[in-house]
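#lab-general

N.A. 3:47 PM
ok so I finally got the sequence cleaned up, no stray characters, all 205 residues accounted for. can someone with queue access submit it? mine expired

B.Y. 3:52 PM
send it over

N.A. 3:53 PM
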Amino acid sequence: MLKSLRVPERLFRLAMWAVSAVFAWFLIGLGGKIVGELPGVDKAVRIEQFMDAGATARRKATRDSLAALEREHTAARERAQLALTAAGNAYQAQRASFENWIQTRRATVDPRQDPEVIASTRALDALKAGEREAQAEVERLDAALVAVAQAATAEGEREAEAQEEARGRFRRAHARQKAEVFGIRLAITLPLLVLAGWLVARKRK
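B.Y. 4:20 PM
back already:
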């Protein structure tokens, strides 16, 4: 008979502990909800907040300008390469034609004094000069692209340095914010937990 009475009593005690745990969980959740509704408590801290906004905007404008300049130089370089290829092909074709012509031509005793030979030679020289100009333009654009790439690399390094400098302040602010949020949560939930413990200890029946 006594054993049969003890079993429901034990079950009742377990049920009361379960109810107390649920109540404590509810109080903790309520405290967390209250903290979450407080203005500015859970506001996210971003690394951009610790960087100079003006300098960041200037670096971004510089990077955008360099990217646009790179696209412009790349397109111009492609056009210059096409022009160089065309000039080289024209020169080679004209030279081959001239060599075949000069071999079969019945020139005067001194071909250097033949007006047609002189005119053809000058035409070849003009084509060669055009090829050299096209090559110089390609080389100029290659140098410009290298300069743009170096400037972009330097700008990226400055951005990385600025981020690294701001990262230390960001970490300290993030840790301070977490500590503040934890303190607020503790200040709100600890009295509730104490109340829950007192209710469990004194008013469980």
